[in-house]
Amino acid sequence: MRKALLALLYFLAAVVALAFLALPIVAIFVHVPPGRLIDQLSNPVVTDALIVSFKTTLIAQAFILLFGTPTAYVLASRRFPGRSLCVTLVELPLVLPPAVAGIGLLAAFGRFGLLGSSLSAAGITIPFTQTAVTIAVAFVASPLYIRQAIAAFETIDPNLVAASRTLGAGPARTFFRVILPLSRGGLAAGEALAFARGLGEFGATIMFAGSLQKVTQTLPLAIYAEFEVNFDVTLAISALLILISAALLISLKLASQWQPSTPTSHSRFGLLSWS
Amino acid sequence: MELASQHRIARRRATVLAALCASLCSLLAATGAAARTGEHSSTRVTGITVYAAASLTDVFPKIDSGPKYSFGASSTLAAQITQGAPADVFASANTTIPAQLFAKQLVQRPVVFTRNRLVFVVPTSNPAGIHSVYDLKKAGVKLVIAAPAVPVGSYTLQVLKQMGLTSVLANVVSRESDVRSVLSKVALGEADAGFVYSTDARTVPGKVRVFKIPAWAQPKVTYALAVVSASGNKAAAQRFIREVLSKAGQKKMLAAGFLALPKAKSKR
Protein backbone atom coordinates (compact mmCIF):
# COMPACT_ATOMS: atom_id res chain seq x y z
CA MET A 1 0.00 0.00 0.00
CA ARG A 2 2.72 2.45 0.98
CA LYS A 3 4.80 1.48 -2.02
CA ALA A 4 1.89 2.27 -4.33
CA LEU A 5 1.33 5.64 -2.62
CA LEU A 6 5.00 6.51 -2.94
CA ALA A 7 4.99 5.54 -6.62
CA LEU A 8 1.93 7.73 -7.15
CA LEU A 9 3.65 10.68 -5.46
CA TYR A 10 6.74 10.25 -7.66
CA PHE A 11 4.52 10.09 -10.70
CA LEU A 12 2.57 13.23 -9.72
CA ALA A 13 5.77 15.15 -8.98
CA ALA A 14 7.15 14.17 -12.39
CA VAL A 15 3.91 15.19 -14.12
CA VAL A 16 3.95 18.59 -12.41
CA ALA A 17 7.60 19.20 -13.28
CA LEU A 18 7.24 18.12 -16.91
CA ALA A 19 4.03 20.11 -17.36
CA PHE A 20 5.71 23.18 -15.87
CA LEU A 21 8.60 22.88 -18.31
CA ALA A 22 6.45 22.11 -21.32
CA LEU A 23 3.70 24.70 -20.77
CA PRO A 24 5.55 27.89 -21.83
CA ILE A 25 6.93 26.16 -24.92
CA VAL A 26 3.58 24.71 -25.95
CA ALA A 27 1.92 28.07 -25.26
CA ILE A 28 4.18 29.85 -27.72
CA PHE A 29 3.30 27.42 -30.50
CA VAL A 30 -0.39 27.67 -29.70
CA HIS A 31 -0.14 31.43 -30.26
CA VAL A 32 1.85 31.19 -33.48
CA PRO A 33 0.18 29.41 -36.39
CA PRO A 34 2.84 27.71 -38.55
CA GLY A 35 1.88 29.88 -41.51
CA ARG A 36 2.78 33.04 -39.62
CA LEU A 37 6.06 31.51 -38.51
CA ILE A 38 7.05 30.88 -42.14
CA ASP A 39 5.93 34.43 -42.99
CA GLN A 40 8.10 35.94 -40.32
CA LEU A 41 11.12 34.14 -41.71
CA SER A 42 11.08 36.71 -44.49
CA ASN A 43 10.97 39.63 -42.04
CA PRO A 44 14.36 41.39 -42.30
CA VAL A 45 14.51 41.86 -38.52
CA VAL A 46 14.29 38.09 -38.10
CA THR A 47 16.72 37.15 -40.89
CA ASP A 48 19.30 39.75 -39.82
CA ALA A 49 19.07 38.55 -36.22
CA LEU A 50 19.43 34.92 -37.35
CA ILE A 51 22.57 35.73 -39.32
CA VAL A 52 24.15 37.75 -36.49
CA SER A 53 23.26 35.08 -33.92
CA PHE A 54 24.68 32.21 -35.93
CA LYS A 55 27.80 34.00 -37.08
CA THR A 56 28.75 35.12 -33.60
CA THR A 57 27.81 31.88 -31.86
CA LEU A 58 29.65 29.68 -34.37
CA ILE A 59 32.84 31.74 -34.16
CA ALA A 60 32.59 31.81 -30.36
CA GLN A 61 32.09 28.04 -30.23
CA ALA A 62 35.13 27.51 -32.46
CA PHE A 63 37.24 29.45 -29.97
CA ILE A 64 35.66 27.65 -27.05
CA LEU A 65 36.50 24.27 -28.56
CA LEU A 66 39.98 25.35 -29.60
CA PHE A 67 40.99 26.81 -26.25
CA GLY A 68 38.59 25.06 -23.95
CA THR A 69 39.50 21.49 -24.81
CA PRO A 70 43.21 21.74 -23.93
CA THR A 71 42.31 23.78 -20.83
CA ALA A 72 39.87 21.13 -19.69
CA TYR A 73 42.40 18.37 -20.40
CA VAL A 74 45.11 20.08 -18.38
CA LEU A 75 42.74 20.69 -15.49
CA ALA A 76 41.43 17.13 -15.63
CA SER A 77 44.66 15.22 -15.94
CA ARG A 78 47.16 17.20 -13.88
CA ARG A 79 47.27 18.14 -10.26
CA PHE A 80 49.18 21.34 -9.59
CA PRO A 81 49.15 24.02 -6.89
CA GLY A 82 46.34 26.46 -7.63
CA ARG A 83 44.38 23.92 -9.66
CA SER A 84 41.19 24.36 -7.67
CA LEU A 85 41.51 28.13 -8.07
CA CYS A 86 41.72 27.66 -11.82
CA VAL A 87 38.68 25.41 -11.83
CA THR A 88 36.74 28.00 -9.79
CA LEU A 89 37.82 30.73 -12.19
CA VAL A 90 36.60 28.67 -15.13
CA GLU A 91 33.25 28.09 -13.44
CA LEU A 92 32.79 31.70 -12.28
CA PRO A 93 31.05 33.10 -15.38
CA LEU A 94 28.41 30.43 -14.86
CA VAL A 95 27.19 31.93 -11.60
CA LEU A 96 27.83 35.52 -12.61
CA PRO A 97 24.66 37.41 -13.56
CA PRO A 98 24.90 38.15 -17.28
CA ALA A 99 24.58 41.88 -16.67
CA VAL A 100 27.59 41.72 -14.36
CA ALA A 101 29.45 39.81 -17.07
CA GLY A 102 28.60 42.65 -19.46
CA ILE A 103 29.89 45.27 -17.03
CA GLY A 104 33.05 43.23 -16.52
CA LEU A 105 33.63 42.98 -20.26
CA LEU A 106 33.19 46.73 -20.56
CA ALA A 107 35.61 47.26 -17.69
CA ALA A 108 38.13 45.02 -19.43
CA PHE A 109 37.66 45.75 -23.13
CA GLY A 110 35.82 49.08 -23.09
CA ARG A 111 37.40 52.23 -24.38
CA PHE A 112 38.81 53.05 -20.95
CA GLY A 113 39.04 49.44 -19.87
CA LEU A 114 41.97 47.51 -18.51
CA LEU A 115 42.93 46.02 -21.86
CA GLY A 116 40.68 48.19 -23.93
CA SER A 117 42.55 51.42 -23.34
CA SER A 118 45.71 50.01 -24.92
CA LEU A 119 43.65 48.48 -27.72
CA SER A 120 41.92 51.76 -28.50
CA ALA A 121 45.27 53.52 -28.52
CA ALA A 122 46.21 51.04 -31.25
CA GLY A 123 42.99 51.93 -33.05
CA ILE A 124 41.04 48.78 -32.14
CA THR A 125 37.68 49.40 -30.48
CA ILE A 126 35.59 46.46 -29.41
CA PRO A 127 32.31 47.70 -27.85
CA PHE A 128 29.39 48.00 -30.27
CA THR A 129 30.97 45.64 -32.79
CA GLN A 130 30.09 42.09 -33.78
CA THR A 131 33.40 41.05 -32.20
CA ALA A 132 31.96 42.27 -28.90
CA VAL A 133 28.99 39.94 -29.32
CA THR A 134 31.34 37.03 -30.03
CA ILE A 135 33.41 37.83 -26.95
CA ALA A 136 30.31 38.09 -24.75
CA VAL A 137 28.98 34.77 -26.06
CA ALA A 138 32.34 33.07 -25.55
CA PHE A 139 32.60 34.44 -22.01
CA VAL A 140 29.25 33.16 -20.80
CA ALA A 141 29.24 29.88 -22.71
CA SER A 142 32.77 28.57 -22.19
CA PRO A 143 32.30 27.46 -18.54
CA LEU A 144 29.51 25.13 -19.61
CA TYR A 145 31.75 23.40 -22.12
CA ILE A 146 34.89 23.34 -20.02
CA ARG A 147 33.11 21.90 -16.98
CA GLN A 148 31.60 19.08 -19.00
CA ALA A 149 34.90 18.49 -20.78
CA ILE A 150 36.75 18.22 -17.47
CA ALA A 151 34.22 15.69 -16.24
CA ALA A 152 34.45 13.78 -19.52
CA PHE A 153 38.25 13.63 -19.40
CA GLU A 154 38.18 12.56 -15.78
CA THR A 155 36.16 9.46 -16.55
CA ILE A 156 38.74 8.08 -18.92
CA ASP A 157 40.46 5.03 -17.54
CA PRO A 158 44.13 6.03 -17.12
CA ASN A 159 45.12 2.45 -17.89
CA LEU A 160 43.92 2.88 -21.45
CA VAL A 161 46.00 6.03 -21.82
CA ALA A 162 49.00 4.26 -20.34
CA ALA A 163 48.45 1.29 -22.64
CA SER A 164 48.43 3.59 -25.64
CA ARG A 165 51.70 5.15 -24.55
CA THR A 166 53.38 1.84 -23.89
CA LEU A 167 52.30 0.68 -27.33
CA GLY A 168 54.36 3.53 -28.75
CA ALA A 169 51.89 6.33 -29.41
CA GLY A 170 53.16 9.81 -28.55
CA PRO A 171 51.11 12.16 -26.35
CA ALA A 172 49.55 13.92 -29.33
CA ARG A 173 48.54 10.66 -31.03
CA THR A 174 47.18 9.35 -27.75
CA PHE A 175 45.15 12.49 -27.31
CA PHE A 176 43.59 12.45 -30.74
CA ARG A 177 43.19 8.69 -31.23
CA VAL A 178 42.38 7.50 -27.72
CA ILE A 179 41.32 10.31 -25.36
CA LEU A 180 39.15 12.41 -27.65
CA PRO A 181 37.11 9.51 -29.06
CA LEU A 182 36.58 8.11 -25.58
CA SER A 183 35.32 11.44 -24.24
CA ARG A 184 33.35 12.31 -27.37
CA GLY A 185 29.97 11.95 -25.67
CA GLY A 186 30.77 14.28 -22.79
CA LEU A 187 32.39 16.84 -25.06
CA ALA A 188 29.36 16.82 -27.35
CA ALA A 189 27.06 17.28 -24.37
CA GLY A 190 29.12 20.20 -23.13
CA GLU A 191 29.21 21.76 -26.56
CA ALA A 192 25.44 21.46 -26.92
CA LEU A 193 24.97 23.32 -23.65
CA ALA A 194 27.52 25.96 -24.58
CA PHE A 195 25.95 26.47 -28.01
CA ALA A 196 22.46 26.84 -26.57
CA ARG A 197 23.69 29.22 -23.87
CA GLY A 198 25.55 31.26 -26.44
CA LEU A 199 22.54 31.48 -28.72
CA GLY A 200 20.39 32.72 -25.86
CA GLU A 201 22.86 35.23 -24.44
CA PHE A 202 21.25 38.59 -23.75
CA GLY A 203 22.46 40.54 -20.70
CA ALA A 204 26.17 40.67 -21.44
CA THR A 205 25.55 41.32 -25.12
CA ILE A 206 23.23 44.28 -24.61
CA MET A 207 25.63 45.84 -22.09
CA PHE A 208 28.85 45.28 -23.98
CA ALA A 209 27.85 45.26 -27.64
CA GLY A 210 24.62 47.28 -27.68
CA SER A 211 21.87 46.44 -30.11
CA LEU A 212 21.89 47.35 -33.77
CA GLN A 213 20.10 45.43 -36.51
CA LYS A 214 22.45 43.53 -38.85
CA VAL A 215 25.47 44.29 -36.66
CA THR A 216 24.93 43.29 -33.04
CA GLN A 217 21.23 42.46 -32.73
CA THR A 218 21.07 38.75 -31.99
CA LEU A 219 17.83 36.75 -31.81
CA PRO A 220 17.25 37.38 -28.08
CA LEU A 221 17.96 41.09 -28.54
CA ALA A 222 15.53 41.15 -31.44
CA ILE A 223 12.89 39.55 -29.23
CA TYR A 224 13.42 42.24 -26.62
CA ALA A 225 13.29 45.03 -29.20
CA GLU A 226 10.19 43.68 -30.93
CA PHE A 227 8.33 43.01 -27.66
CA GLU A 228 7.12 46.59 -27.44
CA VAL A 229 6.59 47.00 -31.16
CA ASN A 230 4.96 43.88 -32.48
CA PHE A 231 4.14 41.02 -30.14
CA ASP A 232 3.44 38.71 -33.08
CA VAL A 233 6.99 39.07 -34.36
CA THR A 234 8.21 38.44 -30.81
CA LEU A 235 6.26 35.19 -30.64
CA ALA A 236 7.51 34.14 -34.06
CA ILE A 237 11.16 34.74 -33.16
CA SER A 238 10.64 32.86 -29.90
CA ALA A 239 9.14 29.90 -31.72
CA LEU A 240 12.04 29.99 -34.15
CA LEU A 241 14.57 29.92 -31.30
CA ILE A 242 12.79 26.98 -29.71
CA LEU A 243 12.88 25.04 -32.96
CA ILE A 244 16.56 25.82 -33.48
CA SER A 245 17.44 24.80 -29.93
CA ALA A 246 15.42 21.60 -30.18
CA ALA A 247 17.00 20.72 -33.52
CA LEU A 248 20.41 21.38 -32.00
CA LEU A 249 19.76 19.16 -29.03
CA ILE A 250 18.44 16.31 -31.15
CA SER A 251 21.20 16.44 -33.74
CA LEU A 252 23.94 16.49 -31.11
CA LYS A 253 22.32 13.53 -29.39
CA LEU A 254 22.24 11.67 -32.68
CA ALA A 255 25.82 12.62 -33.51
CA SER A 256 27.12 11.28 -30.23
CA GLN A 257 25.33 8.02 -30.91
CA TRP A 258 26.92 7.28 -34.27
CA GLN A 259 29.93 5.91 -32.46
CA PRO A 260 28.74 4.95 -29.05
CA SER A 261 31.28 5.83 -26.44
CA THR A 262 30.79 3.74 -23.37
CA PRO A 263 32.34 5.24 -20.30
CA THR A 264 35.52 3.39 -19.60
CA SER A 265 35.34 4.00 -15.87
CA HIS A 266 32.53 2.73 -13.77
CA SER A 267 30.21 5.68 -13.36
CA ARG A 268 26.64 4.50 -13.26
CA PHE A 269 24.85 7.62 -14.32
CA GLY A 270 25.50 8.39 -17.97
CA LEU A 271 25.29 12.15 -17.68
CA LEU A 272 28.48 12.36 -19.66
CA SER A 273 27.83 10.00 -22.51
CA TRP A 274 24.54 9.93 -24.28
CA SER A 275 24.84 6.48 -25.78
CA MET B 1 42.58 20.40 28.62
CA GLU B 2 40.43 19.39 25.64
CA LEU B 3 37.21 20.20 27.48
CA ALA B 4 38.45 23.69 28.41
CA SER B 5 39.41 24.53 24.80
CA GLN B 6 36.06 23.22 23.62
CA HIS B 7 34.37 25.58 26.08
CA ARG B 8 36.48 28.43 24.75
CA ILE B 9 35.56 27.64 21.15
CA ALA B 10 31.88 27.37 22.08
CA ARG B 11 32.01 30.69 23.91
CA ARG B 12 33.77 32.38 21.01
CA ARG B 13 31.20 31.01 18.58
CA ALA B 14 28.42 32.28 20.81
CA THR B 15 29.98 35.75 21.02
CA VAL B 16 30.40 35.96 17.26
CA LEU B 17 26.82 34.82 16.73
CA ALA B 18 25.56 37.35 19.27
CA ALA B 19 27.55 40.14 17.62
CA LEU B 20 26.15 39.17 14.20
CA CYS B 21 22.58 39.15 15.55
CA ALA B 22 23.08 42.49 17.25
CA SER B 23 24.46 44.13 14.12
CA LEU B 24 21.69 42.62 12.00
CA CYS B 25 19.04 43.89 14.42
CA SER B 26 20.54 47.36 14.54
CA LEU B 27 20.75 47.41 10.73
CA LEU B 28 17.09 46.42 10.44
CA ALA B 29 16.11 49.02 13.03
CA ALA B 30 18.09 51.69 11.22
CA THR B 31 16.50 50.93 7.86
CA GLY B 32 13.11 50.77 9.53
CA ALA B 33 13.68 54.16 11.11
CA ALA B 34 14.88 55.63 7.85
CA ALA B 35 11.77 54.36 6.11
CA ARG B 36 9.58 55.82 8.80
CA THR B 37 11.16 59.29 8.86
CA GLY B 38 9.82 59.69 5.30
CA GLU B 39 11.67 62.90 4.64
CA HIS B 40 10.13 63.16 1.22
CA SER B 41 6.45 63.82 1.74
CA SER B 42 3.97 63.86 4.59
CA THR B 43 1.32 62.03 2.60
CA ARG B 44 2.34 58.70 1.21
CA VAL B 45 0.11 56.70 -1.06
CA THR B 46 0.78 53.07 -0.33
CA GLY B 47 -0.52 49.89 -1.85
CA ILE B 48 -0.15 50.88 -5.49
CA THR B 49 2.37 50.12 -8.20
CA VAL B 50 3.42 52.90 -10.54
CA TYR B 51 4.89 52.05 -13.94
CA ALA B 52 6.76 55.16 -15.04
CA ALA B 53 9.12 56.28 -17.77
CA ALA B 54 12.83 55.83 -17.01
CA SER B 55 13.42 59.59 -16.95
CA LEU B 56 11.14 59.85 -13.89
CA THR B 57 13.34 57.48 -11.85
CA ASP B 58 14.68 60.16 -9.53
CA VAL B 59 11.83 62.63 -9.30
CA PHE B 60 8.78 60.39 -8.72
CA PRO B 61 10.06 58.84 -5.46
CA LYS B 62 10.77 62.40 -4.29
CA ILE B 63 7.13 63.33 -4.90
CA ASP B 64 5.85 60.23 -3.10
CA SER B 65 7.99 57.50 -1.61
CA GLY B 66 5.00 55.24 -0.86
CA PRO B 67 4.19 53.41 -4.12
CA LYS B 68 6.14 50.56 -5.58
CA TYR B 69 7.84 51.85 -8.71
CA SER B 70 8.82 50.12 -11.87
CA PHE B 71 10.84 52.34 -14.19
CA GLY B 72 11.63 51.55 -17.77
CA ALA B 73 11.00 52.58 -21.34
CA SER B 74 7.40 53.77 -21.68
CA SER B 75 6.92 51.44 -24.66
CA THR B 76 8.16 48.40 -22.71
CA LEU B 77 5.94 49.26 -19.74
CA ALA B 78 2.94 49.70 -22.03
CA ALA B 79 3.61 46.30 -23.59
CA GLN B 80 3.80 44.77 -20.12
CA ILE B 81 0.52 46.42 -19.10
CA THR B 82 -1.07 45.10 -22.29
CA GLN B 83 0.07 41.63 -21.24
CA GLY B 84 -1.57 42.11 -17.85
CA ALA B 85 1.19 43.46 -15.63
CA PRO B 86 -0.15 44.59 -12.22
CA ALA B 87 0.22 48.36 -12.51
CA ASP B 88 -2.11 50.92 -10.97
CA VAL B 89 -0.70 54.04 -12.62
CA PHE B 90 1.10 54.37 -15.93
CA ALA B 91 3.25 57.44 -16.60
CA SER B 92 4.67 57.81 -20.10
CA ALA B 93 7.22 60.16 -21.65
CA ASN B 94 4.83 60.96 -24.46
CA THR B 95 1.10 61.28 -25.02
CA THR B 96 0.89 58.79 -27.91
CA ILE B 97 1.42 55.64 -25.88
CA PRO B 98 -1.19 56.45 -23.19
CA ALA B 99 -3.58 57.44 -25.97
CA GLN B 100 -3.04 54.05 -27.62
CA LEU B 101 -3.72 52.28 -24.33
CA PHE B 102 -6.78 54.46 -23.76
CA ALA B 103 -8.10 53.53 -27.18
CA LYS B 104 -7.73 49.87 -26.17
CA GLN B 105 -9.48 50.73 -22.86
CA LEU B 106 -6.48 49.56 -20.88
CA VAL B 107 -6.16 52.87 -19.06
CA GLN B 108 -8.52 55.64 -18.09
CA ARG B 109 -8.32 59.02 -19.76
CA PRO B 110 -4.66 60.17 -19.68
CA VAL B 111 -3.67 63.48 -18.11
CA VAL B 112 -0.70 65.60 -19.14
CA PHE B 113 1.54 66.27 -16.13
CA THR B 114 4.85 67.72 -17.26
CA ARG B 115 7.13 68.53 -20.18
CA ASN B 116 10.80 67.96 -20.90
CA ARG B 117 13.57 68.97 -23.26
CA LEU B 118 15.73 66.87 -25.53
CA VAL B 119 19.48 67.43 -25.40
CA PHE B 120 22.48 65.52 -26.57
CA VAL B 121 25.39 64.59 -24.35
CA VAL B 122 29.00 63.62 -24.86
CA PRO B 123 31.43 62.17 -22.32
CA THR B 124 33.40 64.84 -20.42
CA SER B 125 36.55 63.63 -22.13
CA ASN B 126 34.81 64.20 -25.48
CA PRO B 127 36.81 61.56 -27.35
CA ALA B 128 35.28 62.42 -30.72
CA GLY B 129 35.75 66.17 -30.34
CA ILE B 130 32.09 67.07 -30.72
CA HIS B 131 31.34 70.79 -30.38
CA SER B 132 27.95 71.04 -32.01
CA VAL B 133 25.17 68.81 -33.21
CA TYR B 134 26.51 69.13 -36.75
CA ASP B 135 29.76 67.46 -35.63
CA LEU B 136 27.74 64.27 -35.23
CA LYS B 137 28.04 63.87 -38.98
CA LYS B 138 31.80 63.25 -38.67
CA ALA B 139 32.82 59.81 -39.84
CA GLY B 140 33.49 57.33 -37.07
CA VAL B 141 31.46 59.06 -34.36
CA LYS B 142 29.84 56.45 -32.13
CA LEU B 143 26.29 57.71 -31.66
CA VAL B 144 23.90 55.91 -29.34
CA ILE B 145 20.17 56.59 -29.45
CA ALA B 146 17.11 54.84 -28.11
CA ALA B 147 15.05 52.44 -30.21
CA PRO B 148 12.37 54.19 -32.27
CA ALA B 149 9.54 52.67 -30.23
CA VAL B 150 10.90 54.32 -27.08
CA PRO B 151 9.62 57.93 -26.71
CA VAL B 152 13.09 59.51 -26.50
CA GLY B 153 14.10 57.51 -29.59
CA SER B 154 11.21 58.84 -31.61
CA TYR B 155 11.86 62.39 -30.35
CA THR B 156 15.48 61.98 -31.48
CA LEU B 157 14.38 60.98 -34.96
CA GLN B 158 12.05 63.99 -35.04
CA VAL B 159 14.86 66.36 -34.11
CA LEU B 160 17.24 64.92 -36.67
CA LYS B 161 14.58 65.20 -39.36
CA GLN B 162 13.77 68.81 -38.34
CA MET B 163 17.44 69.77 -38.55
CA GLY B 164 18.03 67.90 -41.79
CA LEU B 165 20.55 65.66 -40.03
CA THR B 166 19.13 62.22 -40.82
CA SER B 167 22.49 61.30 -42.37
CA VAL B 168 23.77 61.24 -38.78
CA LEU B 169 21.84 58.00 -38.33
CA ALA B 170 24.62 56.25 -40.26
CA ASN B 171 26.79 56.81 -37.18
CA VAL B 172 24.40 55.03 -34.82
CA VAL B 173 26.17 52.06 -33.20
CA SER B 174 23.39 50.96 -30.89
CA ARG B 175 19.68 51.46 -30.36
CA GLU B 176 19.17 51.15 -26.63
CA SER B 177 16.06 49.99 -24.84
CA ASP B 178 15.56 53.06 -22.67
CA VAL B 179 16.91 56.56 -22.10
CA ARG B 180 19.01 55.68 -19.05
CA SER B 181 20.89 53.02 -21.05
CA VAL B 182 21.76 55.69 -23.60
CA LEU B 183 22.96 57.92 -20.78
CA SER B 184 25.05 55.14 -19.20
CA LYS B 185 26.82 54.32 -22.43
CA VAL B 186 27.82 57.98 -22.81
CA ALA B 187 28.66 58.47 -19.13
CA LEU B 188 30.89 55.38 -19.25
CA GLY B 189 32.74 56.90 -22.16
CA GLU B 190 31.94 54.00 -24.48
CA ALA B 191 29.73 56.08 -26.78
CA ASP B 192 30.84 59.40 -28.30
CA ALA B 193 27.39 60.98 -28.09
CA GLY B 194 23.81 60.23 -27.19
CA PHE B 195 20.40 61.90 -27.16
CA VAL B 196 18.69 62.06 -23.78
CA TYR B 197 16.39 64.37 -21.85
CA SER B 198 17.91 67.38 -20.09
CA THR B 199 16.64 65.95 -16.79
CA ASP B 200 18.64 62.75 -17.31
CA ALA B 201 21.85 64.62 -18.06
CA ARG B 202 21.59 66.29 -14.65
CA THR B 203 21.70 62.94 -12.86
CA VAL B 204 25.33 62.32 -13.84
CA PRO B 205 27.04 65.62 -13.14
CA GLY B 206 30.66 65.71 -14.16
CA LYS B 207 30.41 62.65 -16.38
CA VAL B 208 28.81 64.23 -19.43
CA ARG B 209 28.77 67.53 -21.28
CA VAL B 210 25.37 68.74 -22.37
CA PHE B 211 24.63 70.33 -25.72
CA LYS B 212 21.33 72.12 -26.16
CA ILE B 213 19.11 71.61 -29.17
CA PRO B 214 17.93 74.83 -30.80
CA ALA B 215 14.41 75.77 -29.73
CA TRP B 216 13.05 75.68 -33.28
CA ALA B 217 14.08 72.03 -33.59
CA GLN B 218 12.80 70.92 -30.18
CA PRO B 219 10.00 68.38 -30.40
CA LYS B 220 6.99 68.76 -28.10
CA VAL B 221 8.04 66.46 -25.27
CA THR B 222 4.91 66.05 -23.17
CA TYR B 223 4.45 63.46 -20.45
CA ALA B 224 1.06 61.96 -19.61
CA LEU B 225 -0.14 59.56 -16.93
CA ALA B 226 -3.30 57.56 -16.37
CA VAL B 227 -4.97 55.13 -14.01
CA VAL B 228 -4.72 51.57 -15.32
CA SER B 229 -8.19 50.12 -15.95
CA ALA B 230 -7.35 46.80 -14.30
CA SER B 231 -6.07 48.50 -11.14
CA GLY B 232 -7.39 47.09 -7.90
CA ASN B 233 -6.92 50.36 -6.03
CA LYS B 234 -8.19 53.12 -8.30
CA ALA B 235 -8.83 55.55 -5.41
CA ALA B 236 -5.20 55.43 -4.32
CA ALA B 237 -4.09 55.65 -7.95
CA GLN B 238 -6.16 58.81 -8.37
CA ARG B 239 -4.63 60.21 -5.18
CA PHE B 240 -1.18 59.64 -6.59
CA ILE B 241 -2.05 61.40 -9.83
CA ARG B 242 -3.48 64.34 -7.85
CA GLU B 243 -0.23 64.47 -5.89
CA VAL B 244 1.84 64.70 -9.07
CA LEU B 245 -0.42 67.44 -10.43
CA SER B 246 -0.50 69.36 -7.14
CA LYS B 247 1.54 72.52 -6.55
CA ALA B 248 3.99 70.62 -4.36
CA GLY B 249 4.40 67.84 -6.90
CA GLN B 250 4.87 70.23 -9.79
CA LYS B 251 7.44 72.20 -7.75
CA LYS B 252 9.46 69.01 -7.27
CA MET B 253 9.28 68.31 -11.00
CA LEU B 254 10.53 71.81 -11.81
CA ALA B 255 13.31 71.39 -9.27
CA ALA B 256 14.41 68.24 -11.12
CA GLY B 257 14.61 70.16 -14.38
CA PHE B 258 11.27 69.31 -15.98
CA LEU B 259 9.33 72.06 -17.68
CA ALA B 260 6.09 73.55 -16.41
CA LEU B 261 2.86 72.86 -18.21
CA PRO B 262 1.60 75.77 -20.26
CA LYS B 263 -1.07 77.52 -18.18
CA ALA B 264 -3.76 77.24 -20.83
CA LYS B 265 -3.50 73.45 -21.19
CA SER B 266 -5.36 71.67 -18.41
CA LYS B 267 -6.75 68.36 -19.58
CA ARG B 268 -8.60 67.45 -16.39
Write the layout of secondary structure elements.
The complex is a heterodimer of chains A (275) and B (268).
Chain A: H1 2-31, H2 34-40, H3 44-77, H4 83-95, H5 98-109, H6 116-121, H7 130-154, H8 158-166, H9 171-182, H10 184-199, H11 203-208, H12 219-227, H13 231-258
Helix pairs in contact in A: 1-13, 3-7, 3-10, 3-12, 4-7, 5-7, 7-10, 8-9, 10-13, 12-13
Chain B: H1 2-37, E1 49-53, H2 59-63, E2 68-72, H3 74-82, E3 89-92, H4 96-103, E4 111-116, E5 118-123, E6 143-146, H5 151-162, E7 172-176, H6 179-187, E8 193-197, H7 198-201, E9 208-212, E10 221-227, H8 234-245, H9 247-255
Parallel strand pairs in B: 1-2, 1-3, 6-7, 6-8
Antiparallel strand pairs in B: 3-10, 4-10, 5-8, 5-9
Model description:
The complex is a heterodimer of chains A (275) and B (268). With 275 residues, chain A is mostly helical. Chain A has 13 helices and no strands. Chain A has helices at 2-31, 34-40, 44-77, 83-95, 98-109, 116-121, 130-154, 158-166, 171-182, 184-199, 203-208, 219-227, 231-258. In chain A, helix 4 packs across helix 7 (130-154). By secondary structure, chain B is of the alpha/beta class. Chain B has 2 domains: 49-115 and 222-255, D-Maltodextrin-Binding Protein, domain 2 (3-Layer(aba) Sandwich), CATH 3.40.190; 118-217, D-Maltodextrin-Binding Protein, domain 2 (3-Layer(aba) Sandwich). Helices cover 39% and strands 19% of the residues of chain B. Chains A and B meet through helix 12 of A and helix 3 and strand 7 of B.
SSE pattern of chain B: HEHEHEHEEEHEHEHEEHH
Strands of chain A, total number: 0
Count the beta strands of chain B: 10
CATH H-level name of the largest domain in chain B... which superfamily? Periplasmic binding protein-like II
Provide the number of structural domains of chain B.
2
Give the low-confidence spans of chain B.
34-41
In one word, what is the shape of chain B?
globular
Bin the helical content of chain A: over 70%
